[in-house]
UniProtKB/TrEMBL annotation, chain A:
Substrate binds at T49, C50, N51, R52, S109, E114, P115, Q116, Q120. Possesses an unusual extended V-shaped dimeric structure with each monomer consisting of three distinct domains arranged along a curved 'spinal' alpha-helix. The N-terminal catalytic domain specifically recognizes the glutamate moiety of the substrate. The second domain is the NADPH-binding domain, and the third C-terminal domain is responsible for dimerization. Catalyzes the NADPH-dependent reduction of glutamyl-tRNA(Glu) to glutamate 1-semialdehyde (GSA). The record marks H99 as: Important for activity. This is Glutamyl-tRNA reductase. Homodimer. Pathway: Porphyrin-containing compound metabolism; protoporphyrin-IX biosynthesis; 5-aminolevulinate from L-glutamyl-tRNA(Glu): step 1/2. It comes from Candidatus Magnetominusculus xianensis. InterPro entries: 4pyrrol_synth_GluRdtase, 4pyrrol_synth_GluRdtase_dimer, 4pyrrol_synth_GluRdtase_N, GluRdtase_CS, GluRdtase_dimer_dom_sf, GluRdtase_N_sf, NAD(P)-bd_dom_sf, Shikm_DH/Glu-tRNA_Rdtase. Residues 6-156 form the Glutamyl-tRNA reductase N-terminal domain.
Automatic annotation (TrEMBL), chain B:
Coiled coil: none annotated. InterPro entries: Cyt_c_assembly, Cyt_c_biogenesis_CcsA, Cyt_c_biogenesis_CcsA/CcmC. This is Cytochrome C biogenesis protein ResC. The chain crosses the membrane at residues 6-24, 36-55, 67-84, 91-113, 125-151, 177-199, 215-234, 241-263.
Amino acid sequence: MTVLVIGLNHKTADVEVRESIAFDRERIKKGLVGLRNLTGISEAIILSTCNRVELYLHADGDLSMVERVKKFLAEFHKFPLEVLDGALYAYGAEDGVRHLFRVASSLDSMVVGEPQILGQLKDAYEIGLKEQSSGLILNKLMKKAISVAKRVRTETKIAENAVSIGYAAVELAKKIFGDLGDKVFMLLGAGEMAELAARHLTGSGVKDVIVANRTYERGLALAVEFSGRAVEFSDFKKELSVADIVICSTGARSYILEYSEMEKQMKTRRQRPVFIIDISVPRNIDPKINSLENVYLYDIDDLQGVVDKNLNERLKESKKAEDIIDKEIDVFFDWLHSLDAIPTIVELRRNAEGIKNEELAKLYNKLNGIEEKDKQAIEHAMNAMINKLLHQPTMALKGNDEEKDILISAARKLYGLNSRPLGRQDEP
Amino acid sequence: MVLTFELALTSYFIATILAILELIRGCKATSKGMVVFAAFGFVFHTLNIALRLFISGHMPTASLHEAASFFTWSIVLIFFIIEYRYKIGLLGSFVLPGVLVLMLSSSVLPRQIRPLPVILKNSWLWLHTILAFVGEAALAVACGVGIMYLIQQRNVKLKKLDGLFHRLPSLRVLDEVNYRLITIGFPLLTLAIITGALWSEAVLGTYWRWDPKEVWSLITWIFYAAVLHARLNAGWQGRRTAILSAVGFIAILFTFFGVNLLMKTFHGFE
């Protein structure tokens, strides 16, 4: 039995394939039942997101197992196996564990470091728990994956810095204004991207919103959505004296805001800083105004540059994350190996011997002068008792029970053996 | 007594190294170490000043060594207050190097305790020196914060959003702290000049003697008064205030060292 990961993701399958293999909540339940009915599978968890479908299994490690699962997937979704086969990957044992840890830590995501995947994985684990399709091994594995992901998040900078235009704008605004709660935000024009950026800004604490759009009604609708106020487009220059953050995206073919105008506005603003984001193409705001004191002007390329640089930083950080994952894989396999029967049996006996010797020493001390012959008789009796007491547990542990892992872990708990078997202690 | 000074100097030295490492590397652990060593340094330094006070029986600002040492101590005090109150990242990297330089210059000056001329023994001395040093220390830290502002402002303006951009605080916080420090330092400086005048009247019979130290203090005072005026009335903020607070500190340093080294002054410390 081993850990087995079979699945596909945005790198191996295009969206049509991903769609047809995706599981919704109900289908996950059915799928889990179906998987557990396959011979050779003892535990199963299904993860299904828009970018990946993955099955985490505790199953027989042979190749035919993988083939059986692939066939099951094809039949379950009524999808041609030949097409599916090309998109599916399968990782066993260490590679499987590594894959899961990388997925959980968002190293395998389309946008490295994005935070959603961990929540999705937790949900998948919850369903597995509820449906009782996961057991000792996968439970431990999932808990480990979640803790690895958290470690990666706190110990590397993989999730730091904005990787979308909207977040980059918010990040910059915060570096200029600190708290955004008392800042006034003006939306010039109502393009899709500008709206998105506006949503990020209001999500980050901006309360006071002004919308100036060429069609007043459309502007009004947006203003209502952000609980702000709409003004006539021709009046936007007046509002520059109060607006601290401006996002501009109109369809104008030339500059709608010139240097001299902004210079005048800065005087009425008493030089309070203003952050202007011009995401329109062609640009709507004279780039020269960036040279005015306390005016910070960013265009779409500037923001894209920020995003690209941050993405690069994340890729660099992912190397550190891989090192953390390598270490955690070792920890997981140490635990897994501790479930092997032989070391447990050896330890059990060693434990019993230890108790025997201790008690004999005490006894001899009390009896004070005892003949060698009697000593041997007493020891013999004690050995017999140990053997008889340990016979049944030993046989059970050595047996080929399906729930052997559970037995071993139960035995270790009942007899108070360390989580690591003695024989393996000197290994890394 | 010598030992406490050396221990303080060594602690400041280590803290400064860590602060510079943090600036270059951006490692959070060094930041904690920096605060711990700076705190050690401050404790030893306080002990040193207390011992000098105890032995001599007067405010330990009688020699240039003592004055530089007490000035440094005041800067570290203000640094800890701001660090505790605002928790602005990287402040140590911009203040501690200055602390170390001042402490080193204090360490090379003659250290023996001299008796104070009888005419100076007056309770005004306490008030006057403490006000002057703590006030100037606040303006010194304002200079550090101003430099931080200028770097961050340049980052945002030139769209150079590298590691330092992420680690430096927001422009608003830096501007606020800078302004706050000037509003602390300036009144203290004003009071120091007033108490100095009263002291002068008490021992020498005249309020103002046009001593170079007095003149330069007045220049510094006018400079900062102008900074505050520009900010409150002309809306000067951000970059301009930051530059002025950096320039103002040069005037303070000159009042402090320059006057003593280049001119003959009643504030001779000897």
